Structures are given as C-alpha cells and as structure tokens.
Amino acid sequence: MKNNKKIAIVFGSQSFEHEISIVSAITMKKVLKCEIIYIFIDKYREFYLIPTDIIKSNLFSSGEYKKFDKLELNHKGFTRKKLFGREKIKFDTVLNLVHGGDGEDGVLAGLFKFYNIPFIGPRIEASVVSCNKYLTKSYAHSCGVKSIGFQYFTKNEIITVEKFPVIIKPVRLGSSIGVSVVNNKEELDYALDVAFEFDNEIIIEPFCAGIKEYNLAGTKIENEYQLSIIEEPQKEQFLDFDKKYLDFNRTQSILSAEIETQLEEKIKESFKKIYNTFFEGSLIRCDFFVLDNEVYLNEINPIPGSMSNYLFEEFNTVIESLSLNLPKHKQININYEYVNKIQSAKGKA
Amino acid sequence: MKNNKKIAIVFGSQSFEHEISIVSAITMKKVLKCEIIYIFIDKYREFYLIPTDIIKSNLFSSGEYKKFDKLELNHKGFTRKKLFGREKIKFDTVLNLVHGGDGEDGVLAGLFKFYNIPFIGPRIEASVVSCNKYLTKSYAHSCGVKSIGFQYFTKNEIITVEKFPVIIKPVRLGSSIGVSVVNNKEELDYALDVAFEFDNEIIIEPFCAGIKEYNLAGTKIENEYQLSIIEEPQKEQFLDFDKKYLDFNRTQSILSAEIETQLEEKIKESFKKIYNTFFEGSLIRCDFFVLDNEVYLNEINPIPGSMSNYLFEEFNTVIESLSLNLPKHKQININYEYVNKIQSAKGKA
Fold first, then answer.
1. Distance between alpha carbon B18 and the CA centroid of its chain, in Å?
2. If you ran DSSP here, which 8-state letter would residue A308 be given?
3. What is the helix (H) or strand (E) element at residue A195, kind and residue range?
C-alpha cells in the first residue's frame, strides 16, 4: 500500500561515509512504501536528481549520475532547469541520509533551516553533540545517563596510558573510522597516529572485551516515544569500516535481544532521557554498553545506517508520522523598534 | 591607509538580534580601513547588496533596502543578476556579523562551509557550544576553566529555588534576552515565564551582586594569540537589551581595567584554554567573573558586538591577518573503493 507522502532522500556529499550513504539510500527503496525521490550530493557538493527506478550504486562510482538533472537550492526549494525558467522539485519532506560529514555535523541542517526545507534528521545542535564524542558524554551527563570514563587529548600533548587494553577514538567522525583497540604499549604510537590522522582531538577509553552492547532506535511523535526493538549486535572485537559498510544495507527484521525486563526498561529510559526534546525531528539509534547491570551510553547515531529500519516492526508508519510531526520554527518578529528609537533620539543613525 | 583585502560584511537575518547586527555592521565602516561591501540578510533570509557609501540603519527599517541588488548564493559564490546571466560579487572573506540566531547558532557557518565561502566567524561546533549555555559550561570544564555552578531545568519541570537572589537565563539566546535577576520567591514565576517564552530549557545561577566582571577579546593567527586589553565593563545590575544595543556601536578605545598582573595572566590563560583550536577562524570575546581571585567563564561571544573593536589597539591588523589565516578544510578523497568492491562481489549492486 502506497501512502500519499513524497519523501526526498538526500545522500552522498563531502563525507568519509559518502559511499555508505549511497548504500543506505538505495536500501530505503526496498523498505519505504511511500513515494520517494533521490537527491544525490556529489563530492563537489552539487545536487543531482537521480531517477528512483534506475538508482544503483555504480551510477555514482562511474560518474554516470552527471547526466541527470542538476538541482539548485534556494528559497524556492530544489529546482531544475527547464526550457524556460526553472521547475520546483515537489516533495513533502527531506530524509537526510548523509552519514558522517555534512549530514551529521550540522552543515545540511543549517542549509535546510536557512532555506526552510522540512527534513527528517538531527538539527544543528543535536548533530554537533552526537558528532563530537566529548560533547556526547557531557550531554549524556546532563541528562543523567552514564557513559564510559575516558581521557581526552589534543595533538602534540604527551599521552601516557597506564592500563591496557584501551580503545582510541578520534573525537569526531563515526563508523569506526580512525578507531583502534590497543592491547599494549607497543601498539600505542601507531594507533595514535591513525586517530590523529582524522582529528586533532582524541579520547581514550578502557576497552572491555566482554562488554555487552545493545542498540535501540527511536523517535518521538506528538510527545510519544516510538521505540524499536533492542538489538544485541553480533560483532567481532568491534566493527571495522568494511563490516559496518555491509551493515548499511540491512533490511531483514531481526529478533529482540534476550534481556531481562528490568534491564530493557533501563535501556529504554536512558534512550528517552537522551532523545528528550533535543533530537526532535530525527530518528536516532543509541548504542549502549551494559556492565554489571548498569547502562552506559556509547554513542548516538543521529542518522543510523539504513535508518535502522530492521529494528522497527512498523518502519513505514514511523517515518510517515515523523514526517508529519517535524519541529516548527518560531518566526521572529522584526519590527525595527530599536532602530526607530535610535533614529528618533539621534535624528539619523 | 587602505589595504588590499576586500571584506564582505554579512549581517541582519532571522534573529532576535537582527537590529543590533545592523548597528554592529554600520560601526565597522568607521573602524575598518580595508575595502568593505555589505551583504544584508533580511528577515525572510534573502540576500541584498547594500552600497557601502550610503548604508544607514533606516534603509532597513523603512524597507528601502529592497531596491538594491538581490543576491543568490551557490557554488559560484554570491551573484547578482545582470542583463545577461549573473555576475559574481567579488570579495576575499566574509565577516559574519549576524548576532544571535543564524549567525551564532551555526546556520550561516553551515551554509558557508557547504558553499566553500571563506569567512571570519565561529564554525558550527564553536557556534553551538557558545550559543547553548549548558554546553558552554561543559566545554569550559573540559578545558579546565571554571564556570558558575547552576541548576538546569526543562519546561514543565517542578522548579524550586532555595536561595535568592538568582539569575535565570534561557539556555540559548544571547544579549540578555529573556534573562532576569530574581530577588525573592514572589518574582520567580514571572521570570520563569519570561525565560521559557524564549527557550524550552533554562539555567538558574546564584546572582552575586558585587561580582567583578572582565571582558577579553582575541583570536589566534598562525598559532599566536592576539589578545585585546581587558575591560571591566561599567554596568548596572546587568545590561538589559536596550543598554546592550547601544553598546554595539562603540568605536572609542577604552582603558585597560586596573587589575593585578597575576589576575590578568589568569584571565588570559583562561581565554587561551577556551579558544584553543575550537574557535579557529573567529574573533571571540570571553566574559569572565572574578570571585576571591578565581576566574570563572561567564559566556563566550563568538561574534561580539562591533567585533569588540574598541578593545584592540590594532583592530585592522588583527582582522586582516585573521582573514589571511582562516582554517582550511581537508578535501575528502572519495574513490568508490567500497562500492566497487561490492559490485565485483555481487555482480551488480
């Protein structure tokens, strides 16, 4: 059954996760029942309208996408050139599926806010807090949600690690890029070089090999949380980029993790505290650690791979309702009261 | 003496501080010696090129600005319509002078990053951290800089205050909008209503009537800090919007605050810890409190009123050098390695 919403999936862009964004976007065609159109952002940040019926990943790797309509974005929305003038591309809501840079760091959120484009995805502040692992921990703390203890270092600082194994992560970037598990002192320098290749700041956390991980995705619609099942991801030591990449075209529903009701409730409560009003407009996935029955936030994915569709029983309904309940911006009334006051006081300003 | 740089001052926009941005922008004409052009963003977020020789505040309050050239922004930069095609507006660097919304919350930073426009001003992350008073405190803590203790509340929470006076502030917004000093229980409800008018989250801090305040502005150019003099602002209980507004057209240099060398050093060190690499590309003003010889960060103004020109001896040199030393973005190499791998594994993806 098709519904009446038309969603514009925006994907690609100047990001380390450009390619997994393409995979995520194509996956949506298999799971979304509403009408969808595809707006690709290439590495030069040019917009292209890709026909939904023929979209496939090698259109992008081959450069073939360039033969399709180039779009412009301004207050009229996305438009394409016609014989006379320009035509507006019609859709109801953008679904921001740009993973990593541009999509999850607030660039597109800023662009869409400026041009008043309704979109599903994290707003600027939510993007910055999710994208920066240090700020994620601060934010979690403010919400009363625990996270793993850590050390924070900037480039050129003297870095000493007392106890191995540790996990080293660049402060920004997602999808395990630049992340290493370090088992001993000998492995440290190389891992630091790798992490600092991607960022000027890193965090070092203790690495707990046997730690349980649980993922929960969800959103809030009309003040009601819509939560997914809780997944215990099957993973090796941790997912490297290749493995995560293959993870982005998942469509098959999975079984809930077998956990006690009490722990399940704790995880759900932690999710709600994180989501609160901060993530309004987005569907996020929180990855939690559980140690001695305590729940710790590991990371927030404000644009999870393939939107975590496989975790929801009613993914279509969730996306459609979310698109109908996006946060509204208050229009600011600018009446030049102060300028007028000064002018009357000074004659002319 | 004119130098060769051409700076485009971007101001106005959909912001509670739209009008003080106009005042700040016009003030720049009096203090900047380089060539400047003016790009006004009206409340509908349309761009206009305002002739530098005739700019004055009533062009905006009267709506007269609309007779000037409307601009478009895309990968070609800012362009205006010509008889045939469009002409690029030439400048070297934007100076983001949009105070408050759009300017200081990351919207314009996102827009300029997307379209590769070089600009003086805070980047997205720095904007979000400065704009959100809760995140400012978290960030200060991560840098080893103290801030005043506080309580944090969201709308609809039960709010109790044990000890008066307190100062109530919306979490976002600047320029004292929605801020009240509350002396007793009777004044509380009204002050909370005012604050929640502007934001869903507020912070409540103890209000210390006699606290000393010191302002320091600065930037970093080629890894060297360029700091202003330290000012002890002359203020009543605290500056309300009207008074701050008049403060935005200051051009006259002032005298340094009379403080001990040791305290001066502490304030400067705190500034450097805050600025670090996080604020690269911007000239910020940090407002500090001093209590019992301890320095506390009060707030970060990532686009201070009239760029705090009156605090610098060599304001022109600072702005010009900053415009020559803006942070560079690393271009991400997108080679479709993963897409190609999948295609060869699966035939076609």
1. 13
2. G
3. helix A185-198
Supply the angle between the helices B107-114 and A107-114 in degrees, to the nearest 10: 110
The CA R_g of chain B, rounded to the nearest whole Å, is 22
Q: What is the pLDDT of residues A1-50, one digit of tens each?
A: 445 789 999 999 999 899 999 999 999 999 999 999 999 999 999 999 99
Residues A178 and A314 in one domain: no
Whether residue B150 lies within 8 A of chain A, CB to CB, comes out as no
Q: Name the pTM for this structure.
A: 0.92
Residues B238 and B191 in one domain: no
Contacts for B243 with CB less than 8 Å, ≥ 6 apart: B235, B236
CA distance A11 to B338: 16
Q: Which residues between 218 and 237 in chain B have a beta carbon less than 8 angstroms from any beta carbon of chain A? A: none
The radius of gyration of chain A's CA atoms, rounded to the nearest angstrom, is 22
On chain B, the residues whose CB falls within 8 A of the CB of A128 are 106, 124-125, 128-129
Q: Do A142 and A177 fall within a single domain?
A: no
Helix-helix angle A133-142:B133-142, to 10 degrees: 120
Tell me which residues of chain A, numbers 260 to 299, contact chain B at a CB-CB cutoff of 8 Å: 276-277
CB atoms within 10 A of CB B35: 15
User: Number of structural domains, chain B?
Assistant: 3
Distance in angstroms (rounded) separating the CA atoms of residues A53 and A40 = 14
Question: How many other CB atoms are there within 10 angstroms of residue A67's CB atom?
Answer: 8
A312 contacts A217 by C-beta, under 8 angstroms: yes
DSSP string, B239-295: --HHHHHHHTT--S--PPP---HHHHHHHHHHHHHHHTTTTTT--EEEEEEEETTEE
Instruction: State chain A's maximal CA–CA distance in angstroms.
Output: 75
Q: Say yes or no for a CB contact (<8 Å) between B26 and A349.
A: yes
Judged on CB neighbours under 10 Å (0-12, 13-18, 19+), A185 is exposed
Distances (CA, A) of A35 to A5, A32, A87, B197: 6, 8, 19, 38
CATH of residue A174: 3.30.1490.20
Question: Do A272 and A192 belong together in one domain?
Answer: no
Task: Tell me if B304 sits within 8 A of B219, measured CB to CB.
Answer: no
- B128 to chain A nearest CA, in Å? 6
Same domain, A23 and A140: no
pLDDT digits (tens, 9 = 90+) for A108-167: 999 999 999 999 999 999 999 999 999 999 899 888 899 999 998 888 789 999 999 999
Contact B18, A335 (CB under 8 A): no
B161 contact partners, CB below 8 Å, separation of at least 6: B182, B185, B188, B204
Domain holding A231, by residue range, is 128-147+210-324
Residue A298 has pLDDT above 80, yes or no: yes
Instruction: Answer for the pair A122, A302: CB distance below 8 angstroms, yes or no.
Output: yes
